Input
Amino acid sequence: NFALNAVFLGVRLPGHGFPVEREHIARPAWEATVDGALDELLARHAGERVAICGLSIGALLALATASRRPADVGALALLSPAISLPTAATRLLGVARWLAPLRDLRVAKGVSDIRDAGALAGHPGCDPLPISAFVAFDELRRLTRTIAHTVSLPTLIMHGERDRTCTLAGAEGLGRALGGRVVEVHVLPDGGHVFTLVAERER
Output
């Protein structure tokens, strides 16, 4: 039983939460964080299968890691993958690319789509992000589309039907684009973007 026998290691990506000191927020920093956690698991549990689970941008990083390090990753769980956004958000990312020279200008991330008041109150959130973070996120979205076919690992994709942050069509399209035969896409009828937080409260 995977749920009973697994060892879990969680990571906080630069730019998430409220760190005491400002962090360098860019794709290499995100990738280094994931690589560090993966290396730690491999060192502590040599010879055992390692799966990566990521939510939103974390799902894209999980996929990118599997593409870069296929021998080190055994399976993927991609939750609310942030590969496709609503039209307005996509246009804002285009503006961010245009504003790239103002990389240190900070902008609020936006309002979460969590509908449960208690869950929303406990959601960690983050400080305003520099323009460079939005540009890095957009680069990662574009990279995901080009490398998806190179990943042939068993993959579980889960996406909420009420997700207002990322589109369900994007998650379903990602499932079709992956190079493996064992790919499951599950749609949660009442799930929003951070469906894991609400599900945990309801449990």
